[in-house]
Design a protein that fits this description.
The chain is built from ten helices and eight strands. By secondary structure, the protein is an alpha/beta fold. The protein has one domain: 2-enoyl-CoA Hydratase, Chain A, domain 1 (Alpha-Beta Complex). The strands form two sheets. It has a five-stranded parallel beta sheet with strand order 1-2-3-5-8, sandwiched between helices. 38% of the residues are buried. Bound molecules: ligand LYEYTBR6. Residues 7-8, 10, 42-43, 46-51, 89, 91-93, 116-117, 122-123, 125, 213, 216-217, 220, 237-238, 240-241 line the site of ligand LYEYTBR6. It is found in: Mitochondrion matrix.
Length: 241
Amino acid sequence: MTLQRPPVNSLNLDLLKEMSKSLDEIAKNKSKAMILTSASPKVFSAGLDIMEMYKPDLKRVEEFWTTLQEVWFKLFGSNFITAAAINGHAPAGGCLLAMSCEYRVMTGGNFSIGLNETALGIVAPNWFMDTMTNTIPVREAEYALTTARMFNVEEALKVGLIDEVATDKDDAIAKCKGFIGKFDRIPALARSITKLKMRQAAIKRLQDGRREDLNEFLQFVQNPKIQKSLEMYIQSLKKKA
Ligand SMILES: CC/C=C\C/C=C/CCCC/C=C/C(=O)SCCNC(=O)CCNC(=O)[C@H](O)C(C)(C)COP(=O)(O)OP(=O)(O)OC[C@H]1O[C@@H](n2cnc3c(N)ncnc32)[C@H](O)[C@@H]1OP(=O)(O)O
């Protein structure tokens, strides 16, 4: 699955709906595996589209958040094998997508990956945190989350946020295929049940608290102080360009 929403693959409602549909198709056509990557030469995904949260239409922003939850359920909780070929920056929601896969290969270069929410004055939702603690040790996750740490490729490899480094996108995809090939001699049902048991606690936490998570998000986007911060953040991103 190749993300292709220039310039930075920010996750807006339309892209999330497309992802959700594609994940359904992959599950339905009984694909063995999926590799998630990006069509951009330098950004895997810039995370959530800030414009979806800035001065939002309430009905749309509710659909936006529930679709994001759905994409996470379908990706994190998939039966099929998942790997991410991270060929560029992966902040926040971009990191969430990569961590929701079972294996991550990142191309070398001046790219970074991590959950930077606290730097924006935002608390990452529990399921973002659960996804991180499913990937790297709890102590490292707490440190990274509280300090909004963006890891460079070497740091990400050292902490286990990524599994391998690749020279370029083709190499990243080849390495993801190498990971997928490891399952050729492992019974598929045993593999998928084991994966889902490992992920069950995180999945159940969001299933049980899904409405509450949505309400927290809706309160968050309707808070005038948050709107002001988002406005300043958008300006800072635009000034940079
Ligand atoms: C308990 C609580 C429960 C619920 C409440 C809380 C819930 C809220 C939780 C929300 C969780 C949030 C998750 C997120 O993902 S927020 C998004 C965070 N993302 C970022 O901070 C990344 C910002 N972008 C960048 O750092 C760079 O763009 C990037 C990715 C490194 C690429 O750099 P570069 O190639 O130089 O590109 P530009 O910066 O020049 O950007 C080009 C263009 O794109 C616009 N843009 C960039 N990122 C975003 C984005 N995330 N959304 C929308 N638009 C974006 C940028 O402004 C430029 O626009 P222009 O018009 O100038 O071309």
